[in-house]
Queue: 2 jobs
Job 1
Amino acid sequence: MKIAFIGGGNMAAALVAGLAGKVTPGANIHVVDPNPAALEALHAGHGVTTAASIDEAVTAAEVIVLAVKPQSMREAVAPLVPLLARASQQGSHAPLVLSIAAGIRSADLARWLGGHAAIVRCMPNTPALIGMGISGLVASQGVTAAQRQAADQVLKAVGATVWLDDESKIDAVTGVSGSGPAYVFYFIEAMQQAAVELGLTAEQGLELAKATFTGAAQLAAQSAEPVTLLRERVTSKGGTTYAALTSMEESGVKAAIVTAVKAAAARGRELGEQMGRD
Ligand SMILES: NC(=O)C1=CN([C@@H]2O[C@H](COP(=O)(O)OP(=O)(O)OC[C@H]3O[C@@H](n4cnc5c(N)ncnc54)[C@H](O)[C@@H]3O)[C@@H](O)[C@H]2O)C=CC1
Ligand SMILES: O=C(O)[C@@H]1CCC=N1
């Protein structure tokens, strides 16, 4: 499979690391980015081919991954329009366009791409860097079964995939798992701060907080029991955990988390609306 990336930043680098030499040889991956340092690192690390601007190698790919910031998307894809039109006139295959950008809607992308129909939107997350990502995906109507499978293969190279039946739900995925790693890091930072305020060193606090997250997340992942039961098992009546969770309830921590996740989803929707306006 030939794969092209428009944008070679953080998320593209995570995907390239998962794909190169596993799903396809590095030489079958082409990365376009105006930043020479990003290209050099990807070429040196994975043997990918590179270009500072969109060229024919992009439309020769079966899958074109759009990995620029939402605010740059419209401008970044404009040079693709004549190349896609030429490829279709020559009767070549229509590449699948796989966008990882938060918010940007398939209908707007299709319009910016001159009516290109084969678009999958997806929302990965940064644990993709260590092959432990999770991505939500949704296919627009012009996507073939083979293209859907290709999109799944690309994202499975860096973790698990969850397919959605309705594009409006991808903003929820953005709020939960796309932005989610930041919430976990925030919680780890808070636990480390508490550890220091209780007299431990910053290093000890960080080690305890990180290992607690890793252990609890692995336990939740591996256990057949509901997460609620796992929580209750830690919580002895009248004990220390009960004191902490009661304090969290009184401070409205759960409600605040729910509100925060909804704010991320709403921002995704808003970005799509803003960028989709002509
Ligand atoms: N960082 C994250 O946790 C996640 C990010 N995303 C989405 O991934 C996309 C990329 O995000 P990051 O990799 O974090 O950003 P980044 O800033 O690390 O990478 C963006 C890259 O695009 C390049 N670029 C800018 N204009 C360009 C153009 N016209 N043509 C080609 N390349 C161009 C930049 O030089 C940069 O290397 C965003 O749309 C974001 O919404 C999705 C899931 C998670
Ligand atoms: O914060 C953002 O906009 C991107 C999308 C999901 C995670 N990071």
Job 2
Amino acid sequence: MARLTRAALPRLDPAVRPPVTPGDASAGILHLGLGAFHRAHQAVFTEAAMAAAGGDWGIVAVAPRSRSVLDPLLEQDLLFSVLTLDGAETTARVCGALAGGLHAAGDPDAVARRIADPGIRVITLTVTEKAYRPDSPVMRLLTRGLAARGGAPVAVASCDNLSGNGARLRALVTAEIPADGLSFPGTMVDRIVPASTESTYAAAANLLGVEDRAAVAAEPFTQWVIEDDFAAGRPAWERAGAILTDDAAPYERMKLRALNGVHSALAYLGALAGAPTIDRALALPGMRETMERFIEQDIAPTLQPPPGTTVESYGQSVLHRFANPALGHRTLQVAMDGTQKLPQRLLGTIADRRAAGACPRYGALVLAAWMRFVRGSADDGSPLPLDDPLADRIRATPNLLELDGVFPPGFAGDDELRAQIAHWARDLERHGVAATLKALP
Ligand SMILES: NC(=O)c1ccc[n+]([C@@H]2O[C@H](COP(=O)([O-])OP(=O)(O)OC[C@H]3O[C@@H](n4cnc5c(N)ncnc54)[C@H](O)[C@@H]3O)[C@@H](O)[C@H]2O)c1
Ligand SMILES: O=P(O)(O)OC[C@@H](O)[C@@H](O)[C@H](O)[C@H](O)CO
């Protein structure tokens, strides 16, 4: 089968052809982290913004470590398709937003030069939670390139699932270099985009009629809330449906706690019970009711939702999205890097409830599930992988609440919280997840 390339575009069904193609626009954005999410989210918003309002906002995408996505993209003239998985129906669209591709590990100087290029006016990042450290190679490369801009303005926008992602990135960068010309808009990003598999590529080939080894598949829902603080202009993302705001914090907090917190809960409880995917975890008897109580009793009291929404209705929409059987989102994918994810997804909820004098029953259950998960055995005794940058420290720490830099300092000495976690740990040990949930009143 022929490959997806510029030359193949005229042969494609007009409904799947991209509204812009690489090279139509000069590069204005540099993106660090050429993963699945960027391709199905920011690239799609940017392409739609360029199609609606023009502008030189082509994206130079940087693969920080592996070339496994970059090479197929280079072979395909930077074209890739986004499949939308809506229950039984799958549709495809080719995206033409990319204007270049670079490999940071192989040629860091080329990446630093491009970051320093004044034609780049927006830099976005999806480099996973664990990269937000002063000593991470991608942060060093970013500050090196920014320092070489000589004050030429640029906005640097984190699109990772972190609380206060803009402020966090600002603190990391400005600890090393002056803030002249730089802005750090915060963002809330949302679209479930599981890792691509051979069946993603097979579905893409089937829908496009050409082979696409850089295809991604995602749910229909997509949302991007962006603080409108761009030092050197931006694409007309609002024309693509993005919400531009002064303050993304209420959106971000609700999403991290009521979506990502519940996602992680399903991942740990589900993986222990042998559920391979999030939708299968949610379908376990008693799981949906448990997640509803987690949202209503523990999470909702800690949130001030954005105007026009309630946490309960948001939570119901999230559970509906998680139930999409076509996504095949692996519990083990969501479960990875727990020490990097739990602080913003769960520990803030627990800390806020403890400060209000309440003991978050379901939050404690999720913590007990994570603690059991990282010990490496599912309820049926089968092995579970521990994919976490702090894996060695986890293995060497008998009381996980004492894991420095992960848990708030008060947790280890909080007798009521410890007793609640120990209660769940005993139930999970004696009965397993499935029986524990089924027995809940
Ligand atoms: N996939 C989703 O559903 C989704 C939704 C919302 C937000 N996000 C955010 O996007 C991030 C990436 O998700 P994805 O689906 O693209 O994952 P992915 O595994 O497809 O891609 C991750 C990217 O980050 C890079 N990376 C990984 N570890 C790194 C490190 N230590 N330093 C520098 N770069 C590193 C990888 O090289 C790759 O380019 C998530 O961690 C999350 O913060 C993802
Ligand atoms: O991408 P991660 O690894 O940070 O988290 C896994 C999922 O919880 C996450 O990707 C969600 O699917 C996403 O945040 C939905 O917008």
